[in-house]
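Possible regression after last week's pipeline update?

I re-ran a chain I had predicted before the update to compare outputs. Posting the input and the new output here so someone can diff against the archived version. Not blocking, just want to make sure nothing changed silently.
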Amino acid sequence: MALTGGRDVESGGLQGRLYASVQPAEMGARPTYVLLHGIGVSHRYLARLHEELAKAADVYSFDLPGFGKSSNPGRQLQVEEFAGFVGDVLTEAGVHNYVPVGHSMGTQFAVELALQEPERVAGAVLMGPVVETSRKSTARQAVALTRDAMFSESLTSNAIVFSDYFRAGPRWYLTELPVMMDYPLEERLAAVSQPVLVLRGTKDPIARRPWCVNLAEVAQQGTMAEILGQGHVFQHTAPEIAAQAISGWVRAVNGFGVTA
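New output (post-update):
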């Protein structure tokens, strides 16, 4: 599944692709969500969630540099650089207040955006966050990913994920893998002052429950919630429930001033 109407975007010599579902300003203030994919993949496995959230919010999704239909940067990018790219593109698009919704490695980008742009990022949603501090081993992550694909995911989610892996290519995936593995998520998250929702599927072997509970406790204003019976890619397999969890959390914290 892919969204239509995407456009190429560029900042700082990096190229990506942006997909937007935005209502005219005269329609009234709506929350704004920015969906950020993880390593190897693209906006496609977030497309169902994008469409659900867009029923009541303005939503932006990215193909980040090197992934999806974006060109390869030709060098290793750090988490801070991905976040800086997203922030610059959103500024150019006129987005002034938003909630980044990251999945897997995308949670790292969401945290960095919250730290880089505290005046613009109203809160952050971390779906299936990585990498658990006690399991910073490529072999362990590979085993967990395999378990998730075999026992927790649908045929369509696996088709999207693995075809995106093929498109990105092993060289770029392996270039960015150490960046994901080395990112100190707990340490960086502890410095985030905005509200944070940590969201996981109950069958997710990658973002395990104790790890997610710990992250919610580390955050200054953290909440943890679960999507019953779902794996790591729950935003694709249960998009309506995921959208309800996210929008319900925003309402529960009084919307914290989220506007388009």
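Follow-up from reviewer: compared with the archived run. The mean pLDDT is 93. Marking as no regression found.
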